[in-house]
Amino acid sequence: MRRILPIAILALLWGSTLMGQSNLTVSGLGFFQDRSMDARLSFLNNVESDVAIDLDAAILEDSAFLLLEQMKRKGYLEPTIEGRMCVGDTERSVYWQGDYAIQLEVDFVAEAVEFIITPGVLSYYDAVVVDGVHAIEAKQVERFFIPGGVLFSGKKARVFTYENFERRQGRLLRALDDLGYRSAQVVNQQIDIDPVSGAVQVELTIEQGPLYQIGELEIVITRAGGEHEVRKEPAQRVVFTREWEQAKRAALRNEAYRAGYPDATVSSEIVADSEEQAGVILRHLRYRVDYGQAVTLQQIEFDGDTATKRSVLKRQVELKAGEPLDLIAVSEARRQLMGLGIFQEVGLQLEPTSGDARSVVYALSPSQRKELQLRAGWGSYEQARLGFRWEHRSPWGRAHRYEVEVKQSFKSTLGEATYSIPQFLGTELTTYLNAEYNYREELSFDRRAQGMAVGTSMQLSDTGLRLAVEYGFSQENADRLDLVSFESEEDATVASVTFKASLDRRDDFLAPSSGYSLYASLETAGQWLGGSVNFQKLELGGSYHSSLSESILFHAGLQGGTIFTTGAAEDNIPFNERFFSGGENSVRGYVEGGASPRDSGGDEVGSESYLLLNLELEQRIYSQLSTVFFFDSVLNARDGFFDREREVLSSIGFGLRYQTVVGPLRLEYGHNLNPRDSDSDGALHFSIGFPF
């Protein structure tokens, strides 16, 4: 089988190569780039790459021009294209160079052509000097042209073209504009390109101009019948930016929308500029608001997606016929419809487009209702993880959904099904019913749990806070070999109520570089809820991420938990509920669960309380490759925080990370600083995903 797979891949590639051949081919850039350029050329010429075409002078000249332009966009400013053309029994070579010029006669026709590309020297930004900018730090100004954030920046990351130079120059001017320097402009520029190395030296002189602030405002409101209202606001002396200007327009327009004037328009004009002080100008403005005609709501209509019940849709739209048409409320209802999670897009239009009574029409474009996702991953302990996730949205036309997920690894089996109802009873709550089976081989025991849970959650969009409450009922079993050295409840029926809260302010949950996250969970289990044990379990934690320099990131994670009971611990705390530290996302000098307290026989028995600290310094080498230095430490208390038998286990280590679309691919080694007698010196981990 191992021999067949490479042969099959080679056969597929060879077949694709043959299929890509025609009487027009591209070469000179290497196999993959040649085929990419060939496909690009076929697309731009609107021809099939595997079909012979008529090669007249027009198609040949157009192809040469397009290839030259494509190479210039890649940073090769002086490419050469050789066209080797077959005409009967003869071959003719024609050259096109950096500055395109027509080379073929009007009536020329070839039977086949091979375009051989000689890219030339890659042009790249070597140094950029910008004079005249004081509102932005010089290092930040340079970053508009030369990317930072990494230890090494290769030439391909700093490609120079005249097009990207204009774009980056424009972004710098817009940044100054956003800071209030509305008249900033380039007064001089010099570009020197080394023809041998491709190094580009750029010198720019920018006239930053004065800082504009908001002066006096005059607001003129015109209503139907010629009624005028004039409001005046004193000078605010805040920075005059496009963002402020757009926000002011939106506020005036929304004021009219809420009053039932959906055709309201806002325009502005400069009344005068006055110098407040040296380098600062007050800009006095006049805003004109034309309310237009007052409009009442005639009715609500839904167009498209007949499979979804109209009663479900109407619950999302709190609008009444006969009242003023509030366009803000109409837009909010559109967002409510999108919040059901079953539409790809919800269009909005008013019918008719004029008149004093109009209907609101929501055009519904359904999203994909059934989706199968294959899952794969890797962890040092579980090794390969494979599975799938099946989701069916709005199966009964009521915007409900159900999900089924199955995962299998060398150490565990997981099966889970969830049925959820968004915006339950017209509220922001999502209610769900969940069933789960989980089997996992730990270091010194086998864990098994199966159960059901019902809960509800709510996302507070203004704050990013997510709240949830859940009732769960499960059967938990632990298969241990040594039941004498440490007594615990091996088989328990757990009935509990859990309260959860989380706040995520990270810039990217897959690979964060700034921001923070917090979470808290409190579980109360009791016989009064239908179980066989009584305990409380509290977990708190969070992470913080920040940049120490352009290429160095700092990550910190702190989490802790405790489980306690008013009765005897060995009768009320299930073994499965204990905390087991260690592994690729915990203390990395140990395997999964290996940094846990042990009994007299050397088996891991977990802790009733723990406090875990993770610290990392990440050095970005290239845009996707980083090195990581980390320190992990856990404080374990086998029988609770008030027990005297506490232990601290720590490790330091080094790792490599490669960023992928599913998170960082991690190779890390943790060395134990204070191993116990039976502990190893360290552990090597290979995994996918950010650790905390």
Automatic annotation (TrEMBL):
Q: Which UniProt keywords apply?
A: Membrane, Transmembrane, Transmembrane beta strand
Keyword Transcription on entry:
no
Q: Carries keyword Hydrolase?
A: no
Location in the cell: Membrane
A Pfam family the protein falls into: Omp85
All copies of domain Bacterial surface antigen (D15), residue ranges: 397-692
Q: Per its UniProt entry, which superkingdom is the organism in?
A: Bacteria
Q: Where is the POTRA domain?
A: 125-209, 296-347
* This protein's name: BamA/TamA family outer membrane protein
The uppermost taxa in this organism's lineage are: Bacteria, Pseudomonadati, Verrucomicrobiota, Opitutia, Puniceicoccales
